[in-house]
UniProtKB/TrEMBL annotation:
It comes from the Bacteria. Signal peptide: none annotated. The lineage of its organism: Bacteria, Bacillati, Actinomycetota, Actinomycetes, Pseudonocardiales. PANTHER family: BLL2871 PROTEIN. Gene3D superfamilies: Glutamine Phosphoribosylpyrophosphate, subunit 1, domain 1. This is DUF1028 domain-containing protein. It holds the Pfam family DUF1028.
């Protein structure tokens, strides 16, 4: 009833998992990853606790293959499917003979694609064969899209999720321990993979907003809008900030679009303009005049 991919990016060392299924909120039930340890999925008839078990076994020093082999001895493994990849070595997977067909998996180096209850037996190989020059998270989503092109879940799609963590705890630029690089879910949709791709673009845009705040670089605001031209948050931040820096011709259509999408932004824009005016910003009156 689910297809997924687990992988390690050999360039960055990041670990990731992406999944799609014909049930509600699959991201809360199948996928997990731990910075500096690995990425796993436990689907079909798997117990929810097997995700943590696989990660704990790898954290204790087992390879992905050893962890998968250990879990494969548990009662119920015959009707279950699970996979793992660690910070080094190859990925590994198990497809029990009792999984509902079409079911199977394919591995290649630090990547494993697995699927059960599929419309065609070509799904998992198509995921493994999907290639793209895009960043790691986008490649994981591209693998899901490849599965959909092969027919995907025999019942149709409903939910999808994407989780990427760093090669070591705290490796993410925010500096927080185990902070995920990407953690997105689409819980109920007729096009969960398409929606997941859109959310990933929006997430990238919001990272530009964070960097704009940290670096005071207006080009980061422009990059955010370029990635998510219909996202009210990106438009709001770029419109207000660029206006207060004197880029009024550029800022006004951005803020106008933001207000079309979410009229309540006007209140925040007014607060920002009044605060800037009190601080002596020469462009604040222009912004206030637009409101």
């Amino acid at each position: 009833m689910t297809y997924s991919i687990v992988a390690r990016d050999e360039e960055t060392g990041c670990l990731g998992v992406a999944v799609q299924s014909g049930v509600l909120a699959i991201g809360t039930r199948v996928a997990d990853a731990r910075a500096g340890v690995g990425a796993v999925v436990a689907q079909a008839g798997s117990e929810l606790t097997w995700r943590t078990m696989l990660l704990d076994l790898m954290a204790s020093g087992m390879t992905a293959a050893q962890a998968v082999a250990a879990v494969a001895t548990l009662p119920g493994a015959e009707e279950s499917q699970f996979a793992a990849v660690g910070v080094d070595g190859d990925a590994a997977a198990h497809t029990g003979p009792g999984c509902i067909p079409e079911a199977g998996h394919a591995t290649r180096g630090p990547v494993s694609a697995q699927a059960n209850m599929m419309a065609a037996p070509t799904v998992w190989q198509a995921m493994l064969a999907a290639s793209s020059p895009a960043p790691f998270a986008e490649r994981l989503v591209a693998a899901l899209a490849a599965a959909e092109r092969e027919g995907g879940d025999v019942r149709g799609p409903q939910s999808a999720a994407l989780l990427v963590v760093g090669p070591t705890p705290g490796a993410h630029p925010t500096g927080y321990p185990d902070d995920p690089v990407v953690d997105l879910r689409v819980d109920d949709s007729r096009d969960p993979v398409g929606d997941l791709a859109r959310l990933l673009r929006t997430a990238r845009a919001h990272r530009h907003l964070i960097r704009a705040h940290m670096t005071d670089d207006p080009d980061e605001l422009r990059a955010a809008v370029a990635l998510a031209p219909d996202d009210p948050t990106a438009l709001r931040a770029a419109g207000i900030t660029l206006a207060l820096r004197g880029f009024t011709a550029e800022a006004r259509p951005l803020l106008a679009r933001a207000l079309d999408l979410e009229p309540r932004i006007a209140r925040w824009a007014r607060v920002s303009a009044e605060r800037a005016m009190a601080e002596g910003n020469p462009h604040a009156a222009t912004l206030l005049g637009w409101l």
